[in-house]
Write a structure and sequence with these properties.
The chain is of the alpha/beta class and 276 residues long. It is built from eleven helices and ten strands. Bound molecules: D-glutamic acid.
């Protein structure tokens, strides 16, 4: 039986921990294996083909860890090729873009929705495509915020520079009068305070993390794969491609628990995914 296996998550760095924290809330009984590709972040400025190759290597690594479901807990990686990963993997693979769109649709009152993300995510047109497909009536305003990931990874969220950069990026969305703003990068909920401060209290911020955790629960339930139904030990394993300590510090703040991370050097020998 696969129920005892873990949920595998990946991101370019600490951003996917926002999804992990929702998994702790919504899927309490599940084991987790997380991979943060900190040595190669940020993904948002990289060509999509390269991001797909990186993600492919990580998925192959996750397969060595007894997993039953993969969550691509990174918008840039989801935008670069969710179908591509799904076609090459026998496990269910979830992304974070559609869950975020669905959450925004439940919240908007004036049908003006903003999306912020990395350059790669916004330029891929992935959000635009999902809105066109499931909610064409929405006026969508997309804005890349390329510096946000570096602000988060470097622990500068509370700095005056973070406020200044946020004001600059978000000015067009404020002008457009969006009432709902999707934080279309899993790093951005870590900047939610400053984003909310700049947008004003009446704008609803959407993190796709919670909706993604709900979707993961549905997939596990549908496949009769919930560990909680079986009981037994739960394990949390964290891996990074860069140094462990900075990751552990952010993880501790975000998850409110000690996290031990292990550095893994990927071997760039993907048999299934395209190579660079
Ligand atoms: N958390 C990733 C995302 O959701 C960050 C991307 C990056 O590394 O630039 O897009």
């Amino acid at each position: 039986m696969d129920r005892h296996k873990a949920i595998g998550l990946l991101d370019s760095g600490v951003g996917g921990l926002t999804v992990v924290s929702e998994i702790f809330r919504h899927l309490e009984g599940e084991s987790i294996v997380y991979f943060g590709d900190t040595a190669r972040m940020p993904y948002g400025q990289r060509p999509q083909q390269q991001v797909r190759a990186f993600v492919g290597e990580i998925i192959e690594f996750l397969h060595t860890q007894e997993i039953k479901l993969i969550i691509v807990a990174c918008n840039s990686a989801t935008a670069a090729g969710l179908d591509y990963y799904q076609e090459r993997t026998r496990l269910p693979v979830l992304g974070v873009i559609e869950p975020g769109v669905r959450a925004a649709l439940q919240q908007t009152r004036n049908s003006r929705v903003g999306v912020i993300g990395t350059m790669g995510t916004i330029q891929s047109g992935s959000y635009q495509e999902v809105f066109r497909r499931i909610a064409p009536e929405i006026d969508l305003y997309c804005q890349p915020c390329p510096l946000f990931v570096l602000i988060v990874e470097n622990g500068l969220v509370s700095s005056p520079e973070a406020v200044r950069v946020t004001e600059e990026y978000l000015a067009p969305l404020k002008k457009a009068g969006v009432d709902t703003l999707i934080m279309g990068c899993t790093h951005y909920p870590l900047m939610a305070d400053v984003i909310q401060q700049v947008m004003g209290p009446e704008v609803r911020l959407i993190s796709s993390a919670e909706e993604t955790a709900r979707e993961a629960r549905e997939v596990l339930q549908a496949g009769d794969l919930c560990h909680a139904d079986e009981g037994g030990a739960i394990q949390y394993r964290f891996f990074v491609s860069g140094p462990a300590q900075p990751f552990e510090e952010v993880a501790f703040k975000l998850l409110q628990r000690e996290v031990k991370a292990y550095q893994v050097i990927l071997n760039h020998q993907s048999a299934v995914f395209e190579k660079q």
